[in-house]
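Q: Structure tokens for this one, please.
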Amino acid sequence: MSSSSVPSEGPGPSPRRWITLVVVGLAQLMVVLDATVVNIALPSAQADLGFSDGDRQWVVTAYSLAFGSLLLLGGRVSDLIGRKRTFLIGLLGFAAASALGGAAPDFGVLVAARALQGVFGALLAPTALAVLTTTFTIPKERARAFGVFGAIAGAGGALGLLLGGFLTEALDWRWNLYVNVVFAVIAFVGALIFIRRVESDGPRPKLDVPGTLLVSGGLFGIVYGFANAETEGWGSPLSWAVLAGAGVLLVAFVVWQRRASHPLLPLSIVLDRNRSAGYLSILIAGASMFGIFLFVTYFLQATLQFSPIQTGLSFLPMIAMLVLAAQLSTNLLFPRLGAKLMVPIGMALGAVGMLLLTRSTVDSTYVADLLPALMVLGLAMGTIMPASMQTATMNVDRHFAGVASAMVNTSQQVGGSIGTALLNTIAATATADYVAAHLADGAGAAASAAVAGYTTAFWWGAAFFAGGAIISAVLFRRRVRPSRGSVADSAEEELPAAIAV
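A: Here is the predicted structure, written as tokens:
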């Protein structure tokens, strides 16, 4: 079979593939929600351990730095030592790091545990997607599986807010970390039983050490640079120096990949027009979505005075719409319309949802003002993510499924870092400008100023989505019908075909 055929592992589809989807989905949910589940617990953790407001950001940043910078390495490791083995190692490590963080006696141990979570999360996330890519070889079933997986990837952040609120109020902030041990143990037992171990059918390539160092350093610089700009402002020389250094490292990485005998990321994977469009769409959607979770959370708690649990419950309608849209798009619409129509439609819906949020005021109500916007945004993400993820990993040689899957997670992580830094800075500037212009309004100006910052961020989020609609409409290729007798044709003639590796 050529590298352009639908990837497969083994002689045929696994009879236990749907249970495999449950196991993989649970691991992915654990990794995704961990980026937000700790946020709601931070005030309680800060009061318990006694760290400063300036240090507080490192509880979140330590995870994202390790996770974002090591994703491509994690994906390649799964290609080299096997998906099942990497998956099990990732689950054990993530559980151990979570237990360490939950029992942390001081700030330093907590930050170290969060960084370790990021390291093992970087093993888990791309391996989970690679297992899915190589387990589901029948296009119709693959579409359904990616619908579920895309829904998990899109809804994990909101579920993290809900779970974080419940655990913090009902139990203790430490259970926001301990709960991962429960998830990991269940997923470990399921993976041990149901995920197939497949031996390599050729010589095992070596790890590209120079490429690993270059890309890990470059991704670390991007995440750190934007995180530093978020807290220190865009006038910080350190932020610009780190971002410039990251750019140099990534350019050097591309140059090295062209000559490496065992490249970490074969450039043919990202130079494919459909796949690059998928990665870019995921990055843009990730940057935009942080405007929802971050500022809607602030608005609900600070302006509408919602409790943490109420805040989490407020996102449930969005999650429901996301899951519904993910299933409809992958099972009915994506096979007929392809990513070239589905992703721009999802981006346009995202822009509409953000525009609805710009109507927010200090007198807004959840049902009248926020609920319609959140439901539209759920539809948007359920349309964008599964189509983009499936296109980004379609027709990749199974020996590179891990690193191709890692690019999906890297795009989402980098997009989130960029979106958080940019939208936070924009909102803070808008808030300061409002305060300066309404000094005579007295105490009421503070609440109005905060809402002015949120709505400005929502306007920019709408602009991100609108730009994503244009970019995805231009970059994605039209659907190509496979030739008679091809593997794709024998499975499902209407599935969009991507360019061969």
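A few notes: The chain has 17 helices and no strands. The first helix runs from residue 17 to 49.
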